[in-house]
Amino acid sequence: QHAPNTADNKQAIVHLFEWRWADIAAECETFLGPYGFGGVQVSPPNENRVIAIPYRPWWERYQPISYHLNTRSGNDEDFRDMVHRCNQQGVRIYADVVINHMCGFGGSGHGTGGSYFNAENLDFPAVPYGSNDFNNCSTCGTSDCKVQSYDDVNQIRNCRLVSMLDLNHSSDYVRGKIADYMNYLTSIGVAGFRVDAAKHMWPGDLAAIFGRLSDLNTAYFPSGSRPFIAMEVIDLGGVISSSEYIHMGRITEFRYGKQIGQIFRKQYGQTLAYLQYIGENWDKESDNNVLVFVDNHDTQRSHGAGGESILTFRDSKLYKMANAFMLAFPYGFVRMMSSYYWDQWWELQSWGLKDSNDWIGPPADGSGNTMGVSINNKGNCRNGWICEHRWRQNRNMVMFRNVAAGHGMFNWWDNGYHQIAFSRGDRAFIAINNEGLWALDATLQTGLSSGDYCDVISGDLSNGGCTGKTITVGGDGRTHIYIAGDDEVPMIAIHAGSKV
Ligand code: ARE
Ligand code: CA
């Protein structure tokens, strides 16, 4: 379904990419709950192939070996503990489910949970799946069984995505195994799924699998609640359209992050003024059908789509501005990215520059065990974890979005170029200045009731005072906004919950 099953109608989630379950549980209790986050997308919880060359890349988790919950993030017990503790805080867990395929062809060994597999014979006894459960080269039709052309629907769906053994979802048995796995997750208390590589599965097969899903666990959700579904369909035009999937749930709207990146980077003559029309009024799927994000774990390392336009933590100023816009504007269900750091190594390939370190896995010890997230007394993450979601500007805009929920966009203002402002009914107001040189200096309608408001970009409301700028709104709802062009983070955001 399209509704995310968040508690208290909360409006945004965060992808804690590669985090351990124990760390996520603690984060729900100490941070995500108190700051109004609706949920967490977690890395695939099921057992995966252990890749040694390169050494323990992040992408090994997209190569399933079984549906046992045993990975570098933790085991079954850790996962259950996390789901329970997060739900107790009103923070939902969304599992990334890799159901299009098993691991890459060739070789044999043991997965992260110790299960044996043979990827030469297509044997995964811990499920069990055998060679009959996979698409064969004749249903696919290419010489090496791999997807070779993204112009051929049959290849995309029946061939191996970068060599990974492609499950035959027309089989009742395969559908049953996948549904059992997903039902096991919801029985624990998971609220929904990010469905990996949905583009590579036939919509009819997915509908049959989703039709077998149980209602959510009534210990945490009203009876009859259905799992939230967000399908990974990269649709930048091409033979497969996101519209084939939206009757079943939301799709990941990749055009959004690409366009947001282009606009904030001022590429191709684009300006912030255009943002007024972003969403269904432009070329995208409608509000209720999309999951939106500035970057994700693929696009931040050029694996998915969007190329060099994508904004990430490496461009922190623009990234904060893009996230703030996304969280302020009423379009889509919002997902924030939370990353770990790696050193890039750019090398020239025939098609252009490539980061040859894009495979590097999460911070780990010498034996490849993922390291815990440590947090200093200022609330910032250390030892390689970036924690964009903890940056004040990002974190406070989550509350802005919650406070503004249900209110449309009003009082749009722009200078024709890179300065914009708008309100969300009488609940919230934001102004962004991406001119660089020129100040934003204008008297604007905020839609808010008169009073003093704490700007949640430059500070926090604390003990009735504001640690940042205070903005005074007059009886007519107007205020004078001044944002210097070279401000550290050139934005102002105030809302009904930030009244001093
Ligand atoms: C790895 C190695 C391969 C090796 C393979 C098997 O990199 O060289 O052959 O293992 O041994 C991730 C990584 C892959 C990795 C894989 C498995 O990105 O590099 O392969 O894990 O370990 C397409 C798909 C889309 C997919 C993107 C990345 O349509 O579904 O490619 N995204 C998801 C995940 C990824 C994950 C997988 C799927 C696989 O988010 O993290 O892969 O489970 C156009 C098309 C898009 C296409 C895009 C990029 O825009 O329209 O459809 O996306 O190009 O090719
Ligand atoms: Ca497939």
Automatic annotation (TrEMBL):
Reactions catalysed, as given in the entry: Endohydrolysis of (1->4)-alpha-D-glucosidic linkages in polysaccharides containing three or more (1->4)-alpha-linked D-glucose units
Coiled-coil zones: none
Domain Alpha-amylase C-terminal as annotated: residue spans: 410-499
UniProt GO cellular component terms: extracellular space
Domain Glycosyl hydrolase family 13 catalytic: 11-401
Cofactors named for this entry: Ca(2+); chloride
Swiss-Prot/TrEMBL keywords: Calcium, Carbohydrate metabolism, Chloride, Glycosidase, Hydrolase, Metal-binding, Signal
Domain of life: Eukaryota
GO biological process: carbohydrate metabolic process
Gene Ontology MF: a single term: alpha-amylase activity
Keyword set includes Hydrolase: yes
EC number of the protein: 3.2.1.1
Family: Belongs to the glycosyl hydrolase 13 family.
Name used for this protein in its record: Alpha-amylase
Protein's organism: Branchiostoma floridae (Florida lancelet)
Gene designation: LOC118407469
